[in-house]
Amino acid sequence: MAPSAAQRTVIENCAIATVDAGDTEHASGHVVIAGNRIESVGAGRAPEGLENVVRRIDATGHLVTPGLVNTHHHFYQWITRGLATDHNLFDWLVALYPTWARIDEPMVRAAARGSLAMMARGGVTTAADHHYVFPRGSGDLSGAIIGAARETGVRFTLARGSMDRGESDGGLPPDFAVESLEGALAATEATVVEHHDASFDAMTQVAVAPCSPFSVSTELLRQGAELARRLGVRLHTHGSETVEEEKFCRELFGMGPTDYFESTGWLGEDVWMAHCVHMNDSDIAAFARTRTGVAHCPSSNARLAAGIARVPDMLAAGVPVGLGVDGTASNESGELHTELRNALLVNRLGAHREAALNARQALRLGTHGGARVLGREDEIGSLEPGKLADLVLWKLDTLAHASIADPVTALVLGAAAPVTASFVNGRQIVEDGRLLTVDEDAVARSTRDEARRLARIAAQG
After folding, report:
1. Do both 30 and 154 map to the same domain?
2. Which pTM value belongs to this model?
3. Which keywords fit this entry according to its UniProt record (predicted)?
């Protein structure tokens, strides 16, 4: 708990959705932040006699929720948005890998800053980035991404990706954009050793994250899992995203993706996978049995015509599920509020129809569900005393939301709500919809410039 001498921020007169185990809500309540922890949450006004109160916020007309948790992204894609807009996954990858293979450190830094800024100003307080493209001679890409997260003030997990199956080995990426097995493992271990923080209030963590079954060797998957467990970090990859992936795994390995992952050590409570669209009952049962997590990316799945993931069935089986933006080359909006809404709407087009998900389940996916997938549900993802002070004040008394009586429904199904304030680790990073940590206009200019530079280089290549 925070020490009694900690500086306090008191937030009052707001609706609160705690997203705790009992889904406790308050129509008008308070939150007290002490240092980097939540000290108290409850109905009515804050306790009297609090010491060291440095700020009081009258949050009338607002809903306070835990900060949103993004469990899957590819920051570098911010500078290749709007391309290959009518492709399925494999054709999209073929179209874009020649461009992505020419990224360098300044491009990745700018793209990471753009991706993080867009998410943070829209209520994301924790983000995970799966970066797996490391062209030869491109610089310190992992350091650039981690530096951008620190600058923006967002809690961050770098899923240090890798690929060792290039075009000459039947993969999709150009050979000069992939690493050797030994090089990928060594670089991943070095990144974990240098940057991973295992402490309760860690701002930077690292996961081991070979890209996908069709871009990495079996040995990279197997040894990557062994490396992660030796170092005590989590594992992340793409899984069961498309029907083409299912066909690829059966032709090459003689089994479906889930069985293949299990054979290489890639099911477990320390693993989360992106997409998981094409899962049969046996696959879902295996994920539930092993507590393997899922990053559900509804907008990207729709953009690439991948299909509708069976999220209601996963939740019913006990599979941990969070939400992901995915890369902005397949989800140009680049923010997570869209995923709250689309998770609800898209899943209602599936077999369960109107009973698939409700607004509170969608909010749980985007907060506590994401924290669980990242292995941090004891620290973030709900508003409870002792947890880290990652929270958002959503303004719901304007034209866009004022006539919706239920604030959670307003947040999830309404237009994107303005963020009056966002706190990460007790530090405010957004005020009245603008970032306090970086110059948004400067970030926009740098992303535009680097996108144009990448396009020129790719055209020459």
Report:
1. no
2. 0.97
3. Hydrolase, Metal-binding, Zinc
